[in-house]
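Priority: low. Protein: MT21C methyltransferase. Input follows.
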Amino acid sequence: SLTDPPEILKILQNWVPRVSPYFDKEHYTYAGHQIVIQESIEHFGAVVWPGALALSQYLESNQEQFNLKDKKVLEIGAGTGLVSIVACILGAYVTATDLPEVLENLSYNISRNTQQMNMHKPEVRKLVWGEGLNEDFPVSSYHYDFILATDVVYHHTALEPLLATMVYFCKPGTVLLWANKFRFSTDYEFLEKVCNVFNTTILAEFPESNVKLLKATVREN
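Result:
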């Protein structure tokens, strides 16, 4: 239900400005750790979007409500890896996924930010929405406690396979946390489809950046 009023939040400016010889590195601090993210201007998926900042901040601030420690977490459309890194710091077993062309930068960011820490080693895997799900992630072997997705609704030709991917991975007991900047009518149409398929709650809104953060769970008959 969308009846509960969402929390109204700001995206906190908790990244650390640095004079860097590389214009493409961003420094953030979450859960007491400094995270350095290398962005890539070649790909949409290799830039930190506001949804990732919103979800990272929310996970850090709501660890009692969404305790990721020792939980199995899948991020779809992981992009630069910021959210997956934060989930790792919070103790999750993380699988970060994205398109093949994004994986090199994603792997670089995740390994560089998690290798010195005492945490579960994250995995980086290719996932093309709606393709080869049974082969690559068979239901018998893969069950996730949390599915994380941020700013995945931007390429409007990919929305049907995106929804199919969300449905595939959301089993009874799985919580989908999806943060997105809402810009276009197609974004709201996709939101409506998500609400039709899942039990959906808007947890938080970040009005300055037009980001909504939603929690979705499978409808059990």
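The domain at 44-218 is CATH 3.40.50.150 (Rossmann fold). The first strand starts at residue 7 and ends at 8.
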